[in-house]
Design a protein that fits this description.
3 copies of one chain form a homotrimer. With about 210 residues, the first copy, chain A, is mainly alpha-helical. The first copy, chain A, is built from 10 helices and no strands.
């Protein structure tokens, strides 16, 4: 799949950098060695896209092209160097915004590839979500944590809304490029609002108390 | 693969409902938010079948058809609502029997799809087991637990015996429909007996003490 | 892929035995039941190769041929019996060397299959590593542990160096058989030296202190 939209390629690069950085910092905080930290960075950055490709039965792009892993390695180096200079690297505004850019870019490739493989509406949402949050989930599993997307934060939800908006646009007759723009803008906007407003989903055990 | 046996389609629906319900209740007990609970429900219901399809190199049926996920969503809603009215929802007899029905239906699709893809006898057993218990294993991993099928219960064992009986029937000349009936009956019967008798497998550390 | 090198087939058998034994002993130590222990043994022995095949979009060899699982079962039986006679079975020299032989053989099949599927240099290294350490990582995840390859030991690193040497040989014009021999020897030698010298990678949090 060729991306004609240059903005999209830039978003993808920002996302790979941010995801690799966040994953590496997580690993350093968990006291992993250099290799472990690098693996966590690579997994966080490339895990979602690899899952997306495997789910639609393709040899993962991450194994065929060297571009993405090279970008991820830059993010890993930034993390290893930066973690000694900036205390709360992953909470830095630049990282939070870059992470939202990445979530948005990744979810959109998931929706696009799902669409071009003819999956169901649910399949589009799953691929948007898996591409966006897959890497972070694997990183948390490797660190023996309950994936943060399950416990807190309006994070995976953004990709679900984004995948849903992609599908709504296409079922109203828009082409996939328009749907992609809608998906990317939706994920990014909802994510930033969620961070700013500290949104959280209700817990089912309290639902009936409301 | 078209299922001609209507009984089988009904079993599959019961299984999807029961698995989604059990997974969602588990997630609620673990204090996940609404999305987390729904994801756990979907993963428990669809994880096994998705694994089965990926193992034989097909785009997962769960991403192509909207039927199964819709059924799973019903199970999730039942869990979210029911958990406030019934204390020990997952231990309720109706849930235990439905779960056994699902285990039986899922294991049987695994054996059938393995057979139609020409895998080895071991492959048939693995696919029966992965389809039957895969969803529950993923749910436990996401909840940071040792998968219950590894620690206790005569659960995965039922699918192994079922897959084995499928293979025995076919290697004695029966057709795959007969093998499927044998597999389904075996898994269901063995599972119910195991629950009733509270069977557990011996632990290797005590084997030589016997 | 036919292996013409008999030495390689022997290495593969030794590796399957060692990996199955190590995985089973781990499971027994974690108090799993007989089935759980057997599953851990099978997963440790066959998990890496299965991952390798899925990543290049093939139905896993482990599901098509009965040879490898039969060898793994022998390793599992050895573990269940041996664990009662030898206290520190997994630290026994014979097991450590056999494990290194397996790591070497598995990493090499990963590099070879990556090469024949035309993946990138990074893809070759990922496939060498995934084939070598995948089984152990899954076993640790099932036992709810941070995978040991991430926390300590010069283990996964050996497969990375091996995959890298495979790629260097091929990019200098060597054929894949020569590259395979180079990869196998590199992984085995580096692994044994690492065990003997108790090598560990530095942790990023201490990197700048050096």
């Amino acid at each position: 799949m060729k991306m004609r939209i240059d903005a999209f390629a830039v978003m993808n690069i920002i996302g790979l950098l941010a995801f690799a950085l966040v994953g590496t910092v997580k690993a350093i905080d968990a006291d992993l060695d250099l290799l472990g930290a690098a693996i966590l960075g690579v997994v966080t950055a490339l895990g979602g896209g690899t899952t997306r490709d495997l789910l639609v039965n393709q040899v993962p792009n991450s194994l065929q092209s060297s571009t993405d892993v090279t970008i991820a390695l830059v993010g890993i180096v930034l993390a290893v160097v930066g973690v000694h200079f900036i205390d709360e690297l992953v909470d830095h505004n630049a990282v939070v915004v870059s992470d939202a850019v990445g979530l948005s870019a990744f979810a959109t490739t998931g929706a696009l590839i799902g669409h071009s493989n003819g999956v169901s509406p649910f399949g589009i949402i799953v691929l948007a979500m898996a591409t966006g949050v897959g890497g972070g989930v694997y990183a948390d599993i490797l660190l023996r944590r309950i994936p943060f997307v399950l416990k807190e934060d309006f994070y995976a939800t953004c990709t679900i809304i984004g995948g849903g908006s992609f599908w709504i646009f296409l079922s109203t007759g828009a082409d996939s490029q328009t749907g992609a723009v809608a998906c990317a803008l939706t994920v990014f906007t909802v994510r930033l609002i969620a961070v700013h407003q500290e949104w959280n989903l209700p817990k089912p055990s309290h639902v009936t108390d409301i």
